[in-house]
Specification:
Blueprint: E1 3-6, H1 25-37, E2 42-44, H2 52-59, E3 65-70, H3 80-95, E4 100-105, H4 116-128, E5 132-138, H5 142-148, E6 156-160, H6 167-170, H7 173-179, E7 183-187, H8 210-223, H9 227-235, E8 242-246, H10 250-259, H11 276-279
Parallel strand pairs: 1-2, 1-8, 2-3, 3-4, 4-5, 5-6, 6-7, 7-8
Helix pairs in contact: 1-10, 2-3, 3-4
Length: 286
């Protein structure tokens, strides 16, 4: 099973299609049980996802491989090594585990700052001590890889990939990462839920790209695809190691698992965009 469960909703009111807000601890446990039953064995979380790590720890996650993320090192941190060690130790304590599968940098370009070498060094030391197996980067665009990878060895890259945002593929970076044995996890398969919404549900903000969404809606209709089937048919069958999906309920996770097509889909070229105000949810003005 290539799906990994994203858990931002476990600690935050996350996603524009999320109508329920932060999920309850009881629903979180149901989701985790559904994940186990579906063959999903990896969780994606982060220290900055509100109470997500604590909720996971309380639910019990020993049977899962866990990917978490180190927050940006604060500018006032005089002892970078001490801060990193303390922060990761807190994540492990919150999660109730002694080791995790991977630790990613939430702001990887900090490696290129003045304290970057120290940041990298302490992470490699903690990895050698068994705190985590793999070190990686959570990136927003391929240009970050161009800056960092010539200087630092990483094991895992997490990056956005969906029907509209295909930069990871079109830039050639997905092939390059694969050729170099670097694990790739795709996130934002649903563009934070925007690609799953019915036309009448989409926020006014997306009117600026109405032609693209009209094309998307027509393609779904012509191919007799649900939005879930379309998004998963592209992302799941792309040459990545994992596809991270976030859910609001156990029923939603069950629907996602059932919607995975048994064959890859080839979406129209016209759907692809590199417009940052569309493909980067951090730029959305909703």
């Amino acid at each position: 099973m290539k799906l990994a469960l994203g858990t931002a909703q476990f600690g935050l009111d996350y996603g524009i299609a999320n109508k329920e807000g932060q999920i309850s601890s009881s629903e979180a446990k149901k989701i985790l049980q559904r994940a186990k039953n579906s063959g999903i064995n990896m969780l994606d979380t982060a220290a900055v996802y509100g109470t997500s790590e604590r909720v996971l720890g309380q639910a019990g996650v020993e049977e899962f491989e866990i990917v978490t993320k180190l927050p940006p090192v604060p500018s006032h941190a005089n002892d970078i090594s001490g801060w990193v060690e303390e922060t990761i130790a807190q994540s492990l304590q919150n999660l109730g585990v002694s080791t995790v599968y991977a630790v990613l940098l939430h702001r990887p370009l900090q490696l290129m700052d003045s304290g970057g070498e120290e940041l990298y060094s302490v992470l490699q030391d903690l990895r050698a001590k068994g705190w985590f197996q793999k070190f990686g980067l959570s990136v927003y665009e391929p240009s970050e890889l161009e800056l960092i990878l010539p200087h630092f060895r990483v094991d895992l890259i997490q990056a956005p990939l969906n029907l509209i945002d295909r930069r990871l593929i079109s830039s050639g970076w997905l092939q390059h990462l694969s050729d170099n044995g670097i694990e790739v996890h795709a996130r934002s398969a649903f563009l934070q839920g925007a690609l799953l919404m019915q036309p009448k549900e989409r926020p006014q903000y997306f009117k600026a790209w109405s032609d693209s969404f009209d094309h998307y809606d027509q393609w779904l209709k012509t191919e007799k695809l649900s939005p879930l089937e379309a998004c998963l048919g592209f992302a799941y069958h792309s040459p990545v190691d994992r596809v991270i999906v976030g859910v609001d309920s156990s029923a939603q996770l069950e629907a996602i698992v059932k919607a995975i097509p048994d064959r890859p889909l080839t979406p129209p070229k016209e759907l692809e965009s590199s417009e940052p105000n569309l493909i980067n949810p951090g730029n959305w003005n909703l």
